[in-house]
Amino acid sequence: MPFAFGRHKKMRKTDEFSSVFRFRCVGGGGGLSVLAAPNGLDYARLGLIVPKRIIATAVGRNRVKRLLRENFRMRQDALAGLDIIAQLKAAMAEDALIETFRAGMLQCKTCAENRARRADGPTGSRT
RNA sequence: GGAGUCGGCCAGACAGCCGCCGCGCGGGCAACCGCGCGGAGGAAAGUCCGGGCUCCACAGGGCAGGAUGCCAGGUAACGCCUGGGCGCUAUAAGCCGGGGACGCGAGUCCCCGACCCAAGGCGACGGAAAGUGCAACAGAAACAUACCGCCGAUGGCCUGGACUUUGACGCGCAAGCGGCAAAGUCCUUCCUUUCAGUGGGUGUGGCGAAAGCCAUAUACGCCAAGGGAACGGGUCAUGCGCGUCAGCGCAUGGCCAAUCCCCGCAAGGGGAUGGGCACAGGCAAGGGUGAAAUCGUGCGGUAAGAGCGCACGGCCGCGCCGGCAACGGCUGCGGCGGGCAAACCCCAUCCGGAGCAAGGCCAAAUAGGCAGACGUUGAGGCGGCCCGCCGAGUCUGCGGGUAGGCUGCACGAGGCGAUGGGCGACCAUCGUCCCAGAUGAAUGGCUGUCCACGACAGAACCCGGCUUACCGGCCGGCUCCCACU
């Protein structure tokens, strides 16, 4: 099933997060940052950062994470081989959140592709 | 049917598609795939109490510390719940009284006041005659206090001094002497008064950095004007004292008058008193202050007053009766200088500590390494101290290695139903059901339909409570009112 989203498609370890941050391929805008980096796998993975400082209630944080995860799930086949991180920077409306997340994912995809062509090396040759 | 109040329950629904987590079955070496079932809350929250569970000597004694605090019951336990007691308390209706409007009238309506005060609500609700302490501001006083005020019983002080003139009187031969009375002057002192002036003080307003200055008000003082300064009603009798005498003082009594109180419709009757001041003193009634002022009201009583006495009421202790008890009732006896214990304190009851990152297992790790200190004459541990107990390793530094998985982890003080017991919280028996277990953290998205247009909000070891947040809906109990039978 192309839309399936199991546990292995979630990023959990600190190393995985920090390597994406180090790749410096940033998209999105407003209250949401979207980052990406190649992961050397044939499927995409998603990491979410929703700070308690921005959304106080647990229900609100769950709501944001579910919306982002659902949108990732519907577009994951286009992002194969990438790790995606969505980081919430400020509170925003649901419609705007979804819109910027979709745009950010596209930006990151083209950014990562350009970076790979310029490096002219094999994919996934990072530390 | 309406109003009020209390309690319980629910928390958008349905269908399709795409996804997430767990369990079971089947397939596959495995990753995984298919099917079926299940998948947040009444508060999951705050982490405020109580317990289970786990580890820490054997969880044991004392001190310290903490918590609780009407009584009885429920419970594993509680600061929770149920029932009861006590205290405080809201509003409507009702009833009573008064007034008004309308009506021929029965009456109806409205307003005001008082009474009684529903279901309910609220209460850290043990002890203040064991002790220490506290009470801002205001007020005289929050402690033994007196500002205004009341009194004049008791003690005290004063009711004046000097001078001039006149008059009658007494004594004396006379000169004169004696007190008395009247008029006047001055001093002293007291009271009253008002305009102007003036002095210090206080309040208010303005200016100023401040010192202060100015304005105004107020009572007081000075000054000014006016008024007063009394041996205590009068008289008679008797007795005593002093004086040469005139006379004076004291005591008792009679009559007439004055003032006050009481009785009486009145006439009148009865009783008390005998100058002033308020310095000492007496009082705590009234005013004023305050959250609170020494028990409330009335009568007696007194110089004025006061639980000083009495009646009724209130409070405390003893006794008797009812109740398991808190408590209630009663007459009898004795007593009555308050408040705060959410100040210390006293009394009673309870509490060992730490927490699922507890704790256990597996795997991995050059490797359970080196150096020092203290230790069976007791190191160290039992997370405050002592006793008591366990007891052979413990601590520090250097150098390094892991920080992955499993378990704990969901059958429980469990839910639902029936029967029985209990006012009730709840308990007992039987039947039936299995109902979330994530861990970078699962419940969502899209589409359609319907309606009352959807609040607060997400399990993290588990339960029982409390508290806080919340759009609304449904049901029931109780009280009052209206209508019908």
Written overview of the protein:
This protein has helices spanning 14-23, 58-75, 94-119, and strands at 26-29, 32-38, 45-49, 82-88. The model is unreliable at 121-127 (pLDDT under 50). The protein has one domain (11-114): Ribosomal Protein S5, domain 2 (2-Layer Sandwich). Strand 3 (45-49), helix 2 (58-75) and strand 4 form a beta-alpha-beta unit. The N and C termini lie far apart (32 Å). The chain is built from three helices and four strands, in the order αβββαβα. The chain is of the alpha+beta class. The chain is 43% helix and 18% strand. The protein binds one RNA strand of 485 nucleotides through helix 1, strand 3 and helix 2.
The H-and-E topology, N to C, reads as HEEEHEH
How much of the sequence is in beta strands? 15-25%
Task: From the alpha carbons, calculate the radius of gyration and give it in angstroms.
Answer: 14 Å
| CATH level-3 fold name | Ribosomal Protein S5, domain 2
Q: Which range best describes the helical content: under 10%, 10-25%, 25-40%, 40-55%, 55-70% or over 70%?
A: 40-55%
Structural class: alpha+beta
Number of helices: 3
Global geometry: globular
Query: How far do the termini sit from each other?
Result: 32 Å
Number of domains: 1
- Uncertain segments are 121-127
Topology:
Blueprint: H1 14-23, E1 26-29, E2 32-38, E3 45-49, H2 58-75, E4 82-88, H3 94-119
Parallel strand pairs: 3-4
Antiparallel strand pairs: 1-2, 2-4
Helix pairs in contact: 2-3
The structure holds one RNA strand of 485 nucleotides.
